[in-house]
Design a protein that fits this description.
Blueprint lengths: L22 H7 L2 H11 L1 H18 L1 H4 L20 E4 L2 E15 L6 E12 L9
Antiparallel strand pairs: 1-2, 2-3
C-alpha cells in the first residue's frame, strides 16, 4: 500500500479534480481579506445594506449641494407645521407627478394653539434639485 502525501512541500493540500486551478486550492491560497470579500459578496442582504450605507455617506458628503436651503435659514412661519402629505389626485383627476397643497395657519382662540389646514386651491408640484432660498 502506498502512503499518500497529505500536504505538498509548500504546505498546501494536493490538487484534486482539476489540478492547480481547482477552487479548493484557490481558497487555500487566498488571503484573509479575499476570503472575507468572497463570503460578503455571496450574502445579498449584506451587499444591499452596504449600498445603502455608502449612499447615505455620499449624501452626507454632498449635503451642501443637496440641501435646498442654507444652514442658517429658518422659516418661522411654518416652524410648527406638521409634515405635508403627497397627493396625486386633484379635483377627481390623477396627476402623474406628486404635489402638495398650500398650508393656511390659524390660531385657535380657546387653546391659543396654531393649527394648519391644507388650502386645496393652490398646488405645488414636487421637484428635485429645486432652487431654494438664496
Amino acid at each position: 500500500m502506498a502512503v499518500e502525501r497529505l500536504f505538498s512541500s509548500n504546505g498546501t493540500p494536493p490538487a484534486r479534480d482539476g489540478g492547480a486551478e481547482s477552487p479548493v486550492n484557490e481558497l487555500y491560497g487566498a488571503s484573509q481579506w479575499q476570503l472575507i470579500a468572497r463570503r460578503f459578496r455571496k450574502h445579498r442582504l449584506a451587499v444591499y445594506s452596504a449600498v445603502v450605507v455608502v449612499s447615505l455617506y455620499a449624501a452626507a458628503l454632498f449635503c451642501d449641494f443637496l440641501a435646498p436651503y442654507p444652514l442658517a435659514y429658518r422659516d418661522v412661519d411654518y416652524a410648527y407645521a406638521p409634515p405635508q402629505r403627497l397627493h396625486v389626485m386633484h379635483e377627481g383627476r390623477i396627476h402623474l407627478w406628486p404635489f402638495v397643497y398650500s398650508l393656511k395657519g390659524y390660531r385657535d382662540p380657546v387653546s391659543l394653539r396654531v393649527h394648519f389646514v391644507e388650502d386645496t386651491s393652490r398646488t405645488y408640484p414636487l421637484s428635485l434639485f429645486a432652487t431654494g432660498n438664496p
